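Hey,

Quick one before I head out. I ran the complex with magnesium ion overnight. Inputs first:
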Amino acid sequence: MTKYNGLALSPGLELGTLCFLQSPCNWERKRIAPDEIDSELEKLDASLQATRQELLQLKSRLDQNVGGTTAEILDFQILLTKDPYLINPIHRKITIDCKQAGWALEETLEEIRASINNLKDIFFRERFSDFLDLGNRVLQHINECRLCSYWQTAERLIIAARTLLPSQTVDLPEGRVIGFITQRGGVTGHAAILARSMGIPLVSGIYDLFERGLTGDPIILDGYRGAVIHHPSGEQLESYQRVKEILLKRKALEKADSAAPAITLDGLPIHLLANINSDGDVPQVLQMGAEGVGLYRTELHYLHRMEFADEEEQYQNYKKIALQLSGAPFVIRTLDIGGDKLVPGDFGTKEPNPNLGYRAIRISLREPGLFAAQLRAIYRSALYGAVQVLFPMVSSLEQVVAIKKIINEVVGDLQRAGIPCREKIPMGIMIEIPSAAIRIDSFLQEVDFVSVGTNDLIQYTLAVDRGNEVVSELYQPADPAVLHLLAQIGRAAHKAGKEASICGEMAGDPLYTELLLGLGFRRLSMSPAFIEPVKARIRHIDLADAEKFADRLLGCRFADEVQIMLERRIHDILVTNTDL
Ligand code: PEP
Ligand code: MG
């Protein structure tokens, strides 16, 4: 037995069979005769065509089964199958250097990798996996070979790959893949987004297993704690069975309770909303019983397009969602690009410290055309629903003043031009930078509501990169400093009579639900998949107890102390943390 600890990127607990994803095939790099050039070019074109068809089919399967955001991941690769940036150099290598199509493609990919690696932005570097993934598919067609055949027959597969490529994640035998293990990748990586929306556990930051494991070995994968157990002992298998039964019972209870209201034992209603990334996510929001959308991450809609949408396209998109939500709250966050998120154009790509650099509201305020187009789209779409506008990464009151001035100008322009729009909609800011949390009272005077982005608030309070597996043990939601900031925000909002919600990952983890309620938060926004477990948790909480519990946690000196108390509080989650 060997236990490896890594990063928990998607929750779940599974016992299965290890299966390494292999690279497509090896072949000799050969030159072709000049009279073979035409047929080699035809082979390349046919392989690109076949790949395109395959990706289009995959995308439509995804659209039906998984949801909008994840299907969009393939769009970029579909575009690449016709992109001269990729295809022209391959053609040149075939026609001028007389290289075989596969060789020409591989060399071109190596060149692209070198140019992308020169960029400092993690997100761009992660995008190379899209090129590589596509290249592997095309190579399979060129060389008419198949990936590892093991996974075509075996059951309960736990797929291990150095990096999980986007289309590999979805193009796996349906129903037989139950987990993923990777060496690389953080929470913002595509594989993590996909795995979470597919409900399949994913643990990354695992290295030694790739030297020691063999396809076919038994594995326990704990996507709650980020653990991988290779060749589990009899005791661990028993422990796994026990925990699994508890988890299954809990899931069944959650399902049974899903139509019930989200109220505490003493009758306090809690508002549960959903975080979405595209209009394709809305059906899932309604199905899971969310009260509305608490966070629309508008930037993710454009993630794979490498260009910004214009005002009209944004307006149509927001209007469509507002209509689908039929009057339920719809919080649209303006572009939160930069940092570790992909940006069209050159914003932030060459910065030494992207998370502290040119990003989010800083870009919007310096790009008046871009910002005005989005605000115009939002204020116009507000005629069709309960739209609210939210601004990311605000760090100073000056920024709030500047935002309000721009809103006035934008609305004035629309009115003068006779374009229908709403004059006033609730305006809020994300609290995700300590400077805003510390001076929360002043900020509350300026805005209608605040929404706490705990993902970034933790990152900036503790100075720990949220996507870096090397320092992941320092990324601690339970750190007393984080708790004190949350308490300050919750209490200040209560005193000011303004709404404060939580929309970071903490909101969707039942481990923190009682704490957040005890600190005064009544509105939680999360990935739709987490609505049921959080609702089930709320229905077992008494508010007076929650407040006392939160006070006790605020008295802790160490993050570990807080963590242990949180885990003890919900016995079944404690059990998932047993010594498997
Ligand atoms: C957050 O920071 O908690 C948040 C919700 O925003 P994002 O994850 O998009 O940065
Ligand atoms: Mg954020």
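The first strand starts at residue 2 and ends at 5.

Talk tomorrow,
K.
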